[in-house]
Amino acid sequence: MNGIARNFMLLALSFLFLGVVVGLYMAISQDHAQSTAHAHIMLAGWVTAALCALFYRVTEKAALSRLAQVHFWLQAPSTVVMTVSLLFLYAGHAEAETGAAVGSVGFAVAVVVFAFNVVLSFGET
């Protein structure tokens, strides 16, 4: 695996690791205040990035497009900002709400770019 699919898979694995660490922390401490942040780490981070990696792995036209690069460079930092901000927010730092909002909007834009790329790749044989 190389190119954009590799980038997305490495991103996904990073979030998988972070999600496991947060999950273990919650289990060991019996403090589940981070469950919402944990869910975002696992779903927006791990699952979404892994599915994008698989899509780009099997769809060469989409993987080689400029939109794939735009998608990655929107999604990667946005997901980091959103999930790290949520960790701080659910730890009691209300000032992290701005970061969560900015990251969420960036993530939403990345999803739109991805959807565009998926639709443009229809008809590839």
TrEMBL record:
Membrane among keywords: yes
Organism in which the protein naturally occurs: Gellertiella hungarica
InterPro entries found in the cross-reference section: Cyt_c_oxase-like_su1_sf
Bilayer-spanning residue ranges: 39-58, 70-92, 98-120
Keyword Thylakoid tagged: no
Name listed for the protein in its UniProt record: NADH:ubiquinone oxidoreductase subunit 3 (Subunit A)
Keywords: Membrane, Transmembrane, Transmembrane helix, Ubiquinone
